[in-house]
Amino acid sequence: MKSILHSKNILFISKYLLVGLQVLFLVSCISSQQVTQMGLAEFQNIKEKQKISKNQTYKKQVERVSKRLLQAMGETGEWEFVVFEDDTPNAFALPGGKVGIHTGIFQITKTDAGLATVLSHEIAHVLQGHSLSQVNKAQGVGLAGLAINVILLQSDADKQTIISTNQAYAALTQIGFMLPNSRAHEYEADIVGMQYMAKAGYNPAEAVKLWERFADYNKKKGKSTTPEFLRTHPLDASRIKALRQELPKANAIYQRSKS
Ligand SMILES: [Zn+2]
Asked: How far apart are CA 195 and CA 126, in angstroms?
């Protein structure tokens, strides 16, 4: 009996050692394909947990604007845009071309061009591979959790195991996936996004106006209730200033799109 338990323990420990080694291996080389796989799993997770909006006006606007943006960019990959029932003005992107939009953001986007600003910003995060570089930059426990998830996705782990592991690494997801929170990434997504929308024939000056409306909303709400989107997309004067500086370039693209 004792020896059986003992060997069981050894088996148990060696199993974890093996996982540990796999984690160490994966930490050193997470590929973009694996990050895409994790993005798809996470989006599925969110769709199961969060209420999807039935608002046809929002849905149609998102379809219309995203289609026009992707077409202008010559993007032929698979994309999915889902509107979630949530009053907080937020939007997020996951690797693998998955974009979530909260119903609460429509009070700020208002027009097609306003929505194009948000969507092109999120598309830019995906196409510039911000999640991957964020993941590769992440260190320690969080990344280990991420790597464990990769193992689970690659193995035949049952769904419940994957879900509970997903919950455990939800905190990491916030840092690594949804919120490419470095200043450099935000700046790049803003500028590249503004060029995308200009190419699709949306006036890039509307991008500046959208961020100004966000700033106003923020001011009215007060700092303590700053929406998630703004906490991770710090909206200071320098950000709007950078957009204004890049506006002439985007304007030239806009003029070409009309001719
Ligand atoms: Zn962003």
From this structure: 15
Tens of pLDDT, residue by residue over 172-194, are 444 444 444 567 788 889 999 99
What pTM was estimated for this model as a whole?
0.72
157 Cα to the center of ligand 1, angstroms: 33
Whether 119 contacts 81, CB under 8 Å: yes
Distance, in Å, from the CA atom of 247 to the CA atom of 59, rounded to the nearest integer, reads 29
The rounded Cα 146 to chain-centroid distance in angstroms is 16
| Residue 35 burial by Cβ neighbours in a 10 Å radius (0-12, 13-18, 19+) | buried
Task: Give me 99's structure tokens.
Answer: 């974009």
Separation of 189 CA from ligand 1 center, angstroms?
6
At 216, list the tokens.
Answer: 């106003």
H helices within the chain, ranges in order? Answer: 2-28, 32-49, 56-72, 106-109, 112-127, 130-137, 140-154, 159-168, 170-173, 183-199, 205-221, 228-232, 237-258
Q: How far, in Å, from the CA of 130 to the mean position of ligand 1?
A: 9
Kindly give the distance from the C-alpha atom of residue 121 to the centroid of ligand 1, in angstroms, as a whole number.
6
Token reading at 159: 């769904």
Cβ neighbours for 225, distance < 8 A, ≥ 6 positions apart:
none
The SS3 call for residue 99 is strand
Residue bearing the bigger pLDDT, 235 or 152: 235
The arrangement of strands across the sheet holding 98-102 comes to 80-84, 98-102, 91-94
Residues with Cβ within 8 Å of 210's Cβ and at least 6 positions away in sequence, in order, are 108, 109, 113, 114, 117, 118
Biggest CA-to-CA distance, the chain: 83
Nearest 5°: phi and psi at 87?
A: -75, -20
Instruction: Provide the annotated active-site residues.
Output: 122
